[in-house]
Write a structure and sequence with these properties.
Layout: H1 10-19, H2 26-36, H3 46-73, H4 83-92
Helix pairs in contact: 2-3
């Protein structure tokens, strides 16, 4: 939100994606804007921005990190993660 107006336009979205090293074609940016614009006002507010960037970053870079995290949580090669283990991790992380 370079101009401080409380929302992001397509040109601002393209700019931030390039700065993050993500590919952003005009068509792709327009599609993302359309998909993220939950309230249909033609702009992206912060909660909408978090959704699209989170999805994009996970698609580009997050798979390996997610697989590593899963392996760390999985019970000794079982391929299963207990809900209790995830809950415990999330409630104690950063303490």
């Amino acid at each position: 939100d370079r101009d401080g107006n409380g929302h992001i336009e397509a040109r601002e979205l393209s700019s931030v994606m390039r700065r993050l090293g993500l590919k952003a074609s005009t068509e792709g940016t327009t599609q993302m804007m359309d998909a993220a614009d939950v309230d249909g006002n033609g702009q992206i507010e912060f909660p909408e921005f978090v959704l699209i960037m989170g999805k994009r970053v996970l698609e580009e870079d997050g798979r390996v990190e997610l697989e590593c995290a899963f392996r760390l949580l999985a019970q000794q090669g079982s391929g299963l993660v207990k809900v209790e283990d995830v809950k415990a991790l999330l409630t104690t992380a950063g303490q």
